[in-house]
Amino acid sequence: MSEVRLNVITGDWVVIATERAKRPEDFIHIKQKKEVPAYVATCPFCRGNEDKTPPETFVLKGPDDNWLVRCVPNKFSAFSPDGEIVKTKANFKQHITGVGLHEVIIETPEHNMTTALLPVSQIERILVAYKNRLLAFYKDTRVEHVIIFKNHGESAGTSLEHPHSQIVGTPVFPGQVMNRLGDAIKNYYYVNFGDCLYCLYLKDEQKDKIRIIGENDSFVAFVPYAALSPFHVWIFPKKHNACFGHIIDSEISGLADILKDTLMRIYTGLDNPDFNYVIRSLSSAGADSKFFHWYLAIIPKVIQIAGFELGTGMFINTAMPEESARFLREVKI
Predict the structure, then answer these.
(1) What residue ranges of the chain have pLDDT lower than 70?
(2) Contact in structure between 183 and 6 (CB atoms under 8 Å)
(3) Which residues contact 167 (CB under 8 A, 6 or more apart)?
(4) Which of 298, 323, 307 is nearest to 116 (CA)?
(5) Active centre residues (catalytic)
(6) Is 183 helix (H, G, I), strand (E, B) or coil?
(7) What is the value of pTM for the model shown?
(8) Where are any strands of DSSP class E within 137-255?
(9) Inter-CA distances, 89 with 93, 170, 176, 260, Å
């Protein structure tokens, strides 16, 4: 019989379809391998093609003065960086000017690289760029919320194969974030009597151990009890902090190490699947929040969302979270 588990962090009910559950190996989709060069003349993100992008907003360079990570405005931005916020309301018809910020973080000069294969030192640089841009975005008073995310592969929504991430500053507070924040506040004050739900949840996963993938001094990577999809992984900081932008240098090193390890396990065990990852965080102003806890979520695209999910808002997970975690733990890297 299937189990219906509650994901207390997201508020979602998840059907763990035990009778339809697949072996972890069944989620491997073998891709046709193709040779990808380290440099592509038409790629705007390759080193030497800097004139194909807008001027950089942030850059990290090596000893030879060549760039290692570049941040540039997105030429196809979802929002306009110019203008002011204007709100209009006529009965139920409401809109706001699409003013905001949207940048691309070019993760490496090498076109044929993927994040899982980058050295930890390079992933540290990427995280430093994330932190710099998140803090810079929140200095713009028109920005209400900032999201950092990566799309890897066509089914994950990427349009350019050169390794890159994106950061977006929106002029509104997204409804999904608002709902999760509301649940966190309710849990803090009325359910857990002044204890952060995220901190308590992490301690519970550490106690159970069976869904843990990896752990270091600062972070824990695990498949949550009610994972929304197969191999859905969360990386939680052990220290309570609501804003990713307040991460310190030693934590950046720890996050780079566990992110590299987790992505490498997914890359090796599932044959480089398409995936998304996202950093969920509050602003600097909310960094001292006692009820929210920033974290990074990785979602391999090994299944498709269908009518049931769209019609109910519930998820069907055909992989036991415990088996997904065991499989990733045992991958040889």
Answers:
(1) 19-22, 30-32
(2) no
(3) 71, 101, 102, 103, 105, 130, 133, 134, 137, 146, 147, 148, 149
(4) 298
(5) 164
(6) helix
(7) 0.94
(8) 145-152, 164-170, 212-215, 219-222, 233-237
(9) 6, 19, 22, 46
